[in-house]
Every structure is written in C-alpha cells, then in structure tokens.
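Changelog note: in this version the structure field was regenerated for every chain. One regenerated record is shown below for reference.
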Amino acid sequence: MVAIGTFCAPAARGYFANGRWSHTATDGATDPLGSPVTVTWSLVPDGTTIPGRGTSSFVAFMDGLFGGGSGTVAERVWFPLVQQSFDRWTELGGLSFVYEPADDGVNLGGFAGVIGTRGDVRIGGVLLDGPGGTNAQTGFLDNGDITVDTGDGAFFGNPAGNSLDFRNTLTHEIGHALGLGHIDSTNAAFLMEPFSDDTIDGPQLDDIRGLHFLYGDAWERTPAGPNNAAATATMLGELTPGATLTIGLDGAGGAAVLPTETDFASIANNVDEDWFEFTVPAAASLDVTLTPTGPNYFEKPTGIGSLQLTRSSRISDLSLELYESDGGEPELVATANLAPVGQPELLSGILLNQDKTYFARILGDANDVQLYHLSLATAAAGLPGDFNGDGAVDGGDFLHWQREAAGALGPADLDAWGREYGRVVGASAAVPEPSAIACAGAYCVALIGLFAYGRVRRARNAPSRCAFRQRFR
C-alpha cells in the first residue's frame, strides 16, 4: 500500500493528518478543519488512461476475480465490496462518501469531480509491480484517485472474511484519499499502517481519531449543518424518565474497533462545540456524565522520528454545560469543568420541566481530537417545593420545611415552594389558585417560618441559654 507524497511530522497526537478536501463537486469550497464534507466516488471505465502506467482494466479484473454480470458496474456481484469500503468511513465520521454512477473516462488523476460527470475520488486498476509489494496507490489531495494493482489477483481474490484482503486494502487507500498518511505502532494495529493486516477489519481507533480531526464526528451531520450551536443541535428527541441515553459508547473501549461499531463522538479541536437537544415528557431529574475516552498507544508517522506515547483519553480538557429554553435564547443552567484532564465531568440532580427544551454543550481546550462518552440518565422527579414527596405542592410541604429548616432545607427551598404552590406531579399547569386570603396566609406563615429559622440559627451560635435552645428544638 502506497500513498504518493511527502508528509510532515505532526505533534504527538497519534494519527497522521495530511490535509483535507478543500473543494468537492457537491460542496464547492468546504468549511474549516473538523467540519463535514461530502465527497463523491466513481469507477473509471476500462481503457481510461492512467498516466505513466497504461490503461485501466479494473472492471475486467474484478469480473475475473468475483464474477461479472450484465448492466452497469453497480450491478456487478463485487460492487458491494467497493461500496462497503467507502460506506465504512462514512459511518465513522463527518465525511460522507457518495457513489457517482457517471465517469467520463478522462485520464485518472488531476481532474476534479463534477456531479453527473465523474467522482471526486476515482478508482482504476493497472499492473503496478505484480504479486506482493505494492497492492495499490493513491494520490494526495485534492487528487485522491486510487490505482489498484491488477497483478495482485491471488491476494485480492481471497474470499476469507468477506474478501477482507481486498476490503482492507481499498479502505486503507480511501484513508489516503480523505487525507490520512501512514503511521507505525508497536503495541496496536491500525488500518493506516503501511502493511496489510488481516487481524483487523477496517478503520481502528486511531484511524477514526484522524478522520474526526479532519471532518468531525458523524454527529456533526445534522440537516441544518454542523452541531456547533443550539440552532443546529443534534436532535436526541424525548428522554423518558428512568431511561439512560448514551453517545460515543464505542469509543470507550480499546484501540481495536469491530466492524459493527459505529458510535464514536469527539471534540475535533479547540473551536469545535457539540450541541445536543432533548426534551422530557414529564418532570424529571437529570444526571449527565461526560467521560473522555481512548487508550494509550505508541505511534509515529512512517519513516519519521521515533515512537511517542499517545494518551488519547488525555488530549483535551473537556467541559460540559446544560442549557434550557422556553422558545427563546437558551439560558445556562449548570456547568461542569473542574475535573482534571482525562477525568469525567458530572452534573447531578438537575430538575427538568416538560415545558422546556434542553441542550447539552461540550467543548475542549486543545487543538486536537478528544473522544468522549456522554451519558444522560433521567429519573421521574417530584416538583420543586414538594418536600414531603406526595406529588402536590401545598401546606403540608411548608410544615415539612419548618421541621427541616435548620437542617437540609433553607430559604431557597422556601422560595421554590412559593413559586410552585398549587402544582401537582404530571400536571402541565398549576391547579386552580387558592384564594387571595389563603395565599396571604400561606406567605405570612412562610415569613414567620423564616423569622423562626433565623432565630434558631442565631440561638445555636449564641451564648448558652438552655431554656431558649430547648424551646426551638
């Protein structure tokens, strides 16, 4: 496997990013680093010139290995192997590969993609060096065209593992086509290493980190654009009390990634933000945990420098914020940013209202990729001010407050009781208001309670007067 071009050594962050697509047939000029991009791909017709090599015979080569068929190349029995190789990268990050069925057969390399004419990335095949050696080669951006060695028929024709040798080779070359260079590791196996490895299937954790650095994670692909603001937040829908929703769970394992794993979330750099929007069907209590994830491994760019340790769970110090909105601009409810780098940030016992929309916002302080696991756990919650837990905010709660006023409850809790007086659990509005006299009476009692609360506090800090202390116990 060969990528054409000279690479520059990056910092000790793992993956080797070698630039990204700055212009595509679908998007035109693309957004900044870490933003989603759509790249088209096509198969060149046999007879297409590959400069310095001859003419492509990729279609006939694949027909000979796997069987042919009539009709378009997309109807060939081997076409799904090619499709799967592109689709796997699409599953894992913000880059979307889309098949372009047209290809006008202009020379491979040097021609930009055009919708309805040819793909951004084009695949052809020619004899490179025969069996062994180089299996395929890829140009560097913005020319990501791929040439497969048609002299490696025995290798590519191996059917084991759903043609793993062919798929891994092509998926590796697609990694070059999207902007990743070769790397070496001594204690982990990654797709972008320069030699074939049939112990892995597709991109592994460090390969995914490189993809995210260039194009962001798959959560960035919202209908309104990257999820970098409340207006373009990823919609999580309604969180049912008693349930837990997780994001990025597959990134919490080791360096190895199974072909069935797709759930990887990250902050791509220090200007990236991830916003997630959700609601609840009823009053609920929310616990949020944001955990940076990733293993330690040694790695370096192939042929450059010495191996360095990448601590992928300690790349960026993440912070977590929770916002709420009742239709207007979201307002900050709570923040968690005190944990050291590599440690979880927690928000616990946040009371949610079914009449509002909520947003979780995630940020990082490093210009590098930090994978994370986000957990939102909800539980049915009583109303603020329902101190005795009977499902209604009423006079009984004030009596409970009086008993606890010198302990767990204080003036702020009394304020909550006053605001929520008359509400019941599950109701979207207050029950009929009590009379003005009743309200006045309730608040008079409340004021007396506050006065008593202050006297108790002062008495406990005052010089010894036993009768006074006993009276208010």
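Spot check on this record: The chain is about 25% helix and 25% strand. The CA atoms of residues 356 and 367 lie 34 Å apart.
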